[in-house]
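Retro notes
What went well: the complex prediction finally ran end to end.
Inputs used:
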Amino acid sequence: MATKAPVLICPAMNVNMYNNAVVKENISRLTAMGYLFMVPGYGELACKAEGYGRLPEIPDIVEEVESILTPKDLRGEKILVTAGPTREPFDPVRYITNYSSGKMGYALAIAAKRRGAHVTLISGPTALPTPRDMTFIPVASAVDMRDAVMEHLDSATVVIKAAAVADYRPSSRSARKIKKGGDGLDLQLERNPDIILEVGRKKGNRILVGFAVETENLVENARNKLKKKNMDIIVANDVTKEGAGFGYDTNIIKIISADGKIENVPLMGKMEVADRILDKVKKIITGRQSAPRRRPALRDK
Ligand code: C5P
């Protein structure tokens, strides 16, 4: 009661106590006064009853606190993020994939959510926990990812394509497991759709952020990609550097904007890197909002 800080209450009690009319009414009163509550977890309770009443998981409480304490400068934005690798199957038990862990894309989705955006995360298969408080759409192949992106594109104001989409997929998928035979096995591959290229063509006023993972001529290749794919920002990633790229919790990037400006972001955690990228997105949004409105053309009567 003495603090002026936001107060988060995480109730933990017997399920019938939690459902008790007086408790419910008190929670409503406190909510109306500005106190914040988390819904308890479901499961076996200390008294052996089953239901809602467990203390929420500690990482979830920590995430809630992070969200509460983050200024909501992206409120009103609808941010579509893709993350992780894709899986391109060639028989029922095997597939082609890459080393993407999904960490950069998930960090972007979580950071955008903390800053007040409505987030849709379309993710290839990863080992990461599903983030809370966002729309989560799991996909496997590049074609699945493309379909999910196109389905959700209309409502998005910002699209961030952090996924490592496989450029090629096996041309055919055997209905049965391919048996060991001769000394070698030839796989025929065909091109996957380039999702960001398609988004770039119909992006309208949306802000489009892409990634470039390169092992040589980083800036030049990234700039070419930004132009070709009609992006507003490209995040260039030199994966030959220690601490950058796939699998690491850190990254070293260059943020290149459509106007050619480059911001060098030194080695830092992927959550901080995510915030730097979102700062750039926010700058574009603010710039557009403060640009003088063009007057409607006067028409001859
Ligand atoms: O040309 P490149 O694949 O290096 O471009 C990388 C960017 O394009 C990333 O943002 C990635 O998510 C996106 N991409 C895509 N669909 C593909 C290949 C890449 O959206 N098939």
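What we learned: The two ends are 66 Å apart (CA to CA).
What to try next: split runs per interface for comparison.
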